[in-house]
Write a structure and sequence with these properties.
heterodimer, A: mainly alpha, two-stranded antiparallel ribbon, 14 helices, 4 strands, 74% helix, 3% strand, globular, B: alpha/beta, Rossmann fold, 2 domains, 6-stranded mixed beta sheet, 4-stranded antiparallel beta sheet, 10 strands, 41% helix, binds adenosine-5'-diphosphate, binds magnesium ion
């Protein structure tokens, strides 16, 4: 598994190839849009996978950070006259800072209590975004100025396909690097036994906190991307349903697998569009597919398929 | 100076006093064993010594330094390692990765360097893996290094825990029933390991039910009963102690007592 064909390099190779080659098979420009939405969601999922997949800590409020990033690029340029790209960084810093402050008390909770704690946090952020209408436009949302670099406006699905694809590959590279390092091993260890990890010299609370901060930064940047891409944003992006969707991406794709997070994001972004032909059965079918995937591939899609391939090879 | 000392350590859970004013001290380079019937408080004492529980009263001294109530990861940094009676394996990781985790404190852990994959991170990973493989060879698991930890048999998991604890390069190693659930051959292997570990200069505190094993390897033995210290001494002294004989006779009948004496 190591050497040139390490899991890390293979995953990166697959991702780079996907981003580079997919446009060749796109029948129309519409596909650039769908794929860009996939890359953006995948970035948030790859980040959440650091917290959930590596460290085993659930967050049911993660869309809150997505919302912070989204509203940072909405409010910053419109109200404070800041450049959009600076607001991406400010949003990420704010999300990381909030995660660092909130994470200390909240990550002491375990299991279901952690789930409810993070859920409450996410609801709180969505509530603030909804009620501070003077700044955020309230429940109706607000428009977002397009990204401009050196006086060049960057908009449209093709540009955003390449931007979000590049950012995803970069984010995946960081996450894969982390996985194969002392900190990554520490996170995966405490997932299985906090006590054994602690007696191995690992500062469990600190590692959980940094995983939470990293995951928040990923979500925030993804949120900024979506807001700039769509040019419009509503508090729903920070809402509970979106948090659940992010968790479902990680679990469906396979906890702990970077590629799995991308696959999960791709499925949950594209399936609803594909299933629209079934009109009123769309939601039911989506639910059924998720259920079947989890029943037959308990580890999630990517680790589950990997295991099946390994079994049939040996 | 003693490697480890407990002074009047006590802890209660609800109404149950699990450890009741226990004192002892362990000389450097010794094998110090703690025996006693199930529920005597041996594991609880280990949990106090390794920072999982804070004692209700009393002190723990590590190489003369008061470490009472210190968090487990800080105790690890001071050279304390342990294994667990109820195994604590990282089941999502491979055998060798389990041991690599044990190297945590011996590794440079700069998060930024890790994220951006500085060349030093790759070099260090290779060195850590190499060291982990050496330790696996030491405990006889070299050929299982790349297998999933969960695929090891029970005796293998016990030895994996020992390898992981040794990866820390501890000065003091606490072993909680390292031969529990092992067959006689595996038990003998564990005994050989314990002897080699002590020979390498590590002080060992051992909790073990196999009396022959304990009597053979221990420099000193502490007998606990109902959370209290019943006796302490060399194997011979403990074997002859009337209170110990009575306790074992009373609770286990003559067979166990005979075993304790043999
Ligand atoms: N966390 C806990 N909560 C309540 N009771 C406990 C706890 N840990 C240990 N005990 C109790 O303390 C006593 C000693 O247990 P233990 O230390 O595991 O014994 P031993 O390892 O000698 O078999 C038992 O009565 C046990 O039920
Ligand atoms: Mg015990």
């Amino acid at each position: 598994m190591r050497g040139i064909f390490s899991k890390r390099r293979m995953t990166l190779l697959v991702l780079v190839a996907l981003v580079a080659v997919l446009p060749l098979v796109f029948p129309s420009g519409y596909y650039y849009r769908v794929a860009a939405l996939v890359w953006i969601s995948a970035l948030a999922a790859v980040g959440l996978n650091i917290l959930m997949g590596y460290a085993g800590q659930v967050s049911l409020g993660h869309a809150g950070f997505f919302g912070v990033g989204a509203y940072a690029v909405a409010i910053g340029p419109a109200r404070l006259g800041l450049a959009s790209w600076i607001c991406i960084l400010l949003g990420a810093a704010a999300s990381g800072g909030i995660a660092w402050l909130v994470g200390r008390p909240i990550l002491r909770l375990k299991g279901h209590y952690l789930a409810i704690g993070t859920l409450g946090f996410g609801v709180l952020i969505a509530l603030v975004l909804t009620s501070e209408a003077k700044w955020t436009g309230g429940p109706d949302g607000t428009s977002v100025a397009r990204l401009a670099v050196a006086n060049m406006r960057i908009s449209g699905p093709t540009a955003w396909y390449w931007i979000s694809g590049f950012v995803l590959v970069f984010g995946a590279w960081l996450a894969l690097n982390l996985e194969d390092s002392p900190a990554g091993r520490a996170l995966r260890a405490l997932h299985d036994s906090e006590i054994a990890a602690a007696l191995g010299g690992i500062d469990v609370a600190r590692h959980k906190l940094w995983a939470f901060v990293l995951a928040a930064v990923y979500a925030s940047i993804a949120g900024s991307e979506l807001a700039l891409f769509d040019g419009f944003i509503t508090p729903d992006t920070a809402g509970f349903l979106h948090s659940i969707e992010l968790v479902a991406m990680v679990v469906l794709g396979g906890m702990g697998s970077v590629l799995g997070s991308v696959v999960g994001a791709a499925l949950l972004t594209t399936l609803p569009q594909l299933l629209t032909v079934f009109v009123e059965y769309e939601q039911a079918l989506l639910g059924l597919i998720i259920m079947l995937a989890m029943i037959f591939l308990r580890l999630g899609i990517v680790p589950g398929v990997q295991r099946m391939l390994a079994r049939s090879a040996s | 100076m003693s490697a480890l000392a407990a002074e009047n350590v006590a802890i209660a859970f609800g109404g149950i006093v699990a450890v009741d004013g226990v004192s002892f001290s362990v000389e450097p380079g010794n094998i110090f064993s703690i025996i006693g019937p199930n529920g005597a408080g041996k594991t609880t004492l280990f949990n106090i010594m390794s920072g999982i529980y804070r004692p209700g009263s009393g002190r723990i001294l590590l190489a003369g330094e008061d470490v009472t109530g210190l968090e487990p990861h800080r105790l690890a940094a001071k050279g304390l390692a342990r294994t667990f009676q109820n195994l604590q394996i990282f089941f999502r990781m491979s055998v060798v990765e389990n041991v690599m985790v044990g190297r945590h404190l011996r590794e440079a852990r700069d998060l930024m360097k890790a994220l951006f994959r500085f060349p030093s991170v790759g070099h260090q990973n290779r060195a850590t893996r190499e060291k982990a493989r050496e330790l696996l060879a030491f405990v006889g698991l070299a050929d299982r290094a790349d297998d999933a930890a969960g695929s090891l048999p029970y005796g293998g998991l016990r030895r994996l825990e020992i390898a992981r604890a040794l990866a820390l390069e501890p000065r003091l190693l606490l072993l909680d029933e390292p031969a529990a659930g092992c067959n006689p051959v595996e038990t003998e292997a564990v005994e050989g390991l314990v002897r080699e570990i002590v020979r390498s200069g590590i002080t060992v505190v051992l909790v073990e039910h196999d009396m022959r094993f304990v009597m053979r390897v221990s420099d000193r033995i502490l007998v606990l009963d109902g959370g209290k210290k019943l006796a302490e001494g060399t194997a011979d002294e403990v074997r002859r102690n009337p209170q110990v004989i009575a306790a074992y006779l009373g609770r286990y009948g003559s067979k166990e007592a005979a075993r304790a004496r043999s």
